[in-house]
Amino acid sequence: MSTLDITVLDQYSTEELLTRLDHGRLPRHVAVIMDGNGRWAKSRYMPRIAGHYEGMKSVREVVTACREIGIQALTLYAFSQENWKRPPEEIGLLMKLMEGYLKSELDLLLEQDIRFMTIGRPELLPKPVLQWIEKVETATRDCNKMILTVAVSYGGRGEIVDAMRAILEDYQQGSVTIQDIDESLVDRYLYTTALPDLDLLIRTSGEARISNFLLWQVAYAELHLTKTLWPDFRRRELLLALLDYQTRDRRFGRTPQPGLAQTIGKPS
Residues with catalytic annotation? Predict the structure, then answer.
């Protein structure tokens, strides 16, 4: 849980928050559970889809901000396996929204040298969406300033099951032995094998659960929980999360050492 004094940081402007960021201690890989679109819309007496459209503005701003700050990898939880249980009308609108995002953002991704990837079981998506995913992944394949990964039709348990199946197939073919199986081998069979280890997981909307997201990868990640609904989560909220991360003493089970944890003082 966060120990950051938000009331202190609220005294700073977005520009001042940026100057206080230690670019030498940035998380390499940030993941976000983008939650609260429906509640954002409901609070404004608007249909749920309006919250999703507004949430796309947050996606654009957070992606751009991460690229500018120097985050190596950003993973966004866009559509879970459980989301298939939603009403068909809402699923259809979400699929159109996803297709529209891919069409509209391709040029920006290329301009910012951002590689686009998906994880999950995208083969379950409608064909037009899947075709655009493949098009954007192919077009950005050689981009190397940041990796933007979108989790679609994704479930953390499903990912581990898929990894186990792949390991068993290779075992049956003789390319993997029982003695080969360890944590590093399992990691190579996960959807995220091309990404750095997860350093920071952000969840918006005030909820305090993982929601079947990156269950293996979250083992040593820092958690930042914010009450901000996703459509209101922009550059400033991202900076607050990164500054919170930089107050943590990341020991990975080791004995704490004096001087590692840093705090953020009040403005002079």
Answer: 35, 83
